[in-house]
């Protein structure tokens, strides 16, 4: 007996991507302070994560004198499933970068600078020497500028961590990104316990500590509460909570859009559990209101 194809059957439709709710709509950046920074960035061809990451808060942050810069190139040795940064083996290490970044921050008259980077696992010191020199030179050229460094996972290279955090920055951040149960999915080359240990060591060195978690990846409330408890137990001061948004169709899909009321509830939960400051909202990103975090008691 010959099996004949069944004709005229409807194609199975691909699952529709969830529509963004109204609360994720972003206002266009405006204001004289924003315009001044915009002009400098364009004239001097400066690079900020604010632009390359299409951050929804760019106008507000630039208006407040805050900008975020990425150092150590744009190729990451990790392949996190939420991140649109290119993955591969970096081929360059620009030792003059600290000077150029410090000069850019001075030129832009940035009041609060946030520095971040890709992972450079192939480097013996994970890029720590560049990290430290960038902070030191920025402080020399702009002594009135406060600095947050959003540092990567050093893969338990605690000597590299010590160098990274010794430049004189006011806030040291390392993002957990998600709850423990989702680490293999979201950060396959990371480890939940190792990131907690990095935060613990940073706090023991006497620094103001900060981390961020994305919501809407499929985490359960109890898992988020456990992560908060773990972070408090390891010395975290400041936590940011924001909505995960899928950067491309190749990345993890959004499992859920968290409502503003839920974010407000999570903020109260974090404070009740011992965090000193919680920034929580759908559009919150790691650098959102970062200039306020330098005033959190150590």
Automatic annotation (TrEMBL):
Presence of keyword Cytoplasm: yes
Localisation per UniProt entry: Cytoplasm
GO biological process terms held by the UniProt record: protein lipoylation
Entry GO terms, CC: cytoplasm
Record-level Gene Ontology MF annotations: 4 iron, 4 sulfur cluster binding; lipoate synthase activity; metal ion binding
Keyword set, alphabetical order: 4Fe-4S, Cytoplasm, Iron, Iron-sulfur, Metal-binding, S-adenosyl-L-methionine, Transferase
Binding-site positions, [4Fe-4S] cluster 1: 50, 55, 61, 287
Positions bound to [4Fe-4S] cluster 2: 76, 80, 83
InterPro entries referenced in this protein's UniProt entry, alphabetically: Aldolase_TIM, Elp3/MiaA/NifB-like_rSAM, LIAS_N, Lipoyl_synth, rSAM, rSAM_sf
Cofactor binding mode and count: Binds 2 [4Fe-4S] clusters per subunit. One cluster is coordinated with 3 cysteines and an exchangeable S-adenosyl-L-methionine.
Occurrences of domain Radical SAM core (ranges): 62-276
Protein family according to the UniProt entry: Belongs to the radical SAM superfamily. Lipoyl synthase family.
Family annotation (NCBIfam families): lipA, PRK05481.1, PRK12928.1
Official protein name in the record: Lipoyl synthase
Organism: Hymenobacter coccineus
């Amino acid at each position: 007996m010959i099996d004949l194809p069944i004709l005229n059957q409807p194609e199975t439709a691909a699952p529709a991507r969830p529509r963004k709710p109204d609360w994720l709509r972003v206002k266009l950046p405006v204001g004289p302070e924003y315009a001044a920074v915009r002009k400098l960035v364009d004239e001097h061809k400066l690079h900020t994560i604010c632009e390359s990451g299409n951050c929804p808060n760019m106008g507000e942050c630039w208006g407040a004198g805050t900008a975020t810069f990425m150092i150590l190139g744009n190729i990451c040795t990790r392949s996190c499933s939420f991140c649109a940064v290119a993955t591969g083996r970096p081929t360059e290490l620009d030792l003059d970068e600290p000077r150029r970044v410090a000069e850019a921050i001075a030129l832009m008259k940035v009041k609060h600078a946030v520095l971040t980077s890709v992972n450079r696992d192939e480097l013996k010191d994970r890029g720590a020497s560049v990290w430290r020199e960038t902070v030191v030179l920025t402080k020399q050229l702009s002594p009135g500028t406060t600095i947050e460094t959003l540092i990567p996972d050093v893969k338990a290279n605690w000597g590299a961590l010590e160098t990274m955090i010794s430049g004189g920055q006011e806030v040291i951040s390392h993002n957990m990104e998600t709850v423990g149960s989702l680490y293999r999915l979201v950060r396959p080359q990371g480890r939940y316990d190792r990131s907690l240990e990095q935060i613990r060591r940073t706090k023991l060195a006497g620094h103001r500590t900060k981390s961020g978690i994305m919501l809407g990846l499929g985490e359960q409330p109890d898992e988020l509460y456990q992560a908060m408890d773990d972070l408090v137990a390891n010395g975290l001061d400041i936590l940011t909570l924001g909505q995960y948004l899928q950067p491309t169709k190749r990345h993890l899909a959004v499992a859920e859009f968290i409502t503003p009321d839920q974010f407000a509830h999570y903020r109260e939960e974090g404070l009740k559990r011992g965090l000193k400051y919680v920034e929580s909202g759908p559009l919150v990103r790691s650098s959102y209101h970062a200039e306020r975090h330098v005033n959190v008691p150590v």
